[in-house]
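Review form for a predicted model. The reviewer records the input and the model, then writes brief findings.
Reviewer: anonymous (R2)
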Amino acid sequence: MQQLFQNAQIAGPDGSLLAVDILVTDGIIEKFLPAGGQRTPQGIIASDLHGLFVMPGGVDGHVHFDDPGFTEREDFATGTMQAAAGGVTTIVDMPCTSLPPVTTADNFRIKLRAVAPKAYVDFAFWGGTTPTFIDSGAYRRLLPELKELGVVGIKAYTISGMQTYPRLDTRQMVMLFEAARDFNMLVAVHAEDYFLATYYTEKIIREGRTDPLAYKDGRTYDAEPLAISTVLALARREQTRVHIVHMSTSAGVDLVRQAKGQGIDATAETCPHYLLLNREDFVRLGSVAKCTPPLRDRYDNEVLWAGLLDGTVDYVTTDHAAGIYPLEKVMDNIWKAYAGMPGVQLRVPLILQEACNVRGMNLYRLGEILSTNPAKRLGLFPRKGILAVGSDADFACIDLNADWTVHAQDLFAKNKYTPFEGWKLRGAVRQTYVRGAKVYDSSAVFPAGPGYGTFIKAG
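Model under review:
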């Protein structure tokens, strides 16, 4: 089947807008043509995009859609509907917030069978391992099996609140890094020092504090750079590819910048809430804004933006992790609230607003930090993450001049809340296409339906 997407605007490498028609054959981009320069040949399905800005379909490399096992919080249907409505055409789901966790080939297949019929957009998986598998030696057999099935890498925690997915101590982390090097696998690390965070958390709980900043103070700032420095040291010693997830601190940015200068194969992501929210918002919003790591200070917002602009921070994910609302998210005692934020539907418009409309980032660079860079790091490129001949026809079609206000009731979430309630944005996703098929339009219709999204094997 051939399709012609007419009157699109795409960003050139210098950020300038180019008016083009995009010819797609069987879901793959075949050719770019000057806009309006030709008649539509017979047999080709034409779609007029009316001058919408067409960005490479968003790639959110870090989501928790909780399916199977914790679907009272989110499931793959509601999660991928939000992705489609937010211009995200590929999501990468974490291994730890589903039952069973994706730590074996059998568990991988259980998850795939459970979620594939629900997916509105394409998806990939992170794999994982546990202290038990490492101490028994089973991880040396299990990791290459997961790689063969197509996971993008292995997720590890230096601190974890999940009984089904415990943290790795430093010795176990070394063993994982050795194996990941041998099997050429990427390791993503949630980096907060267990002992430091646990000590201060327990101390503050004993003092009787239950306010939002008690959580921030307990999950102490220094826990992140301490853990990041350990992870980067291991990556240097073992020559392992490593990725720091949801980086939240200015000190973390400095450490990653230094590591890259030393030739360590390290990348880092941050999230909209670490770029746009801080301690003042935590005080104002309370438990709704509880996440892990916690929101930091305004200075950290600015240093993270600087790192994103200069390439130290490679891309933006959401760490989408919804709690049951209001049951798990609205309470006076901050320690009892669920630590997690939804975000996949708002990532593209939030970053477009702040990065481009406020800070002057060009639209090509926007596509890099939201699509191209995660696709490259996670082994999904060039099939995903770029508008190029031979790549999947994945588009986020955006009205750059549309003004709108964020309201949780408008999200396609199972639990409708957001810390960005009431934010005024310019730039709205109007249509989303995956492999040439429309998966969302702004009339709140999902034409391709559940099950259209397919598993993408990392290369």
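Findings: The two ends are 26 Å apart (CA to CA).
Further findings: The mean pLDDT is 97.
Recommendation: see findings above.
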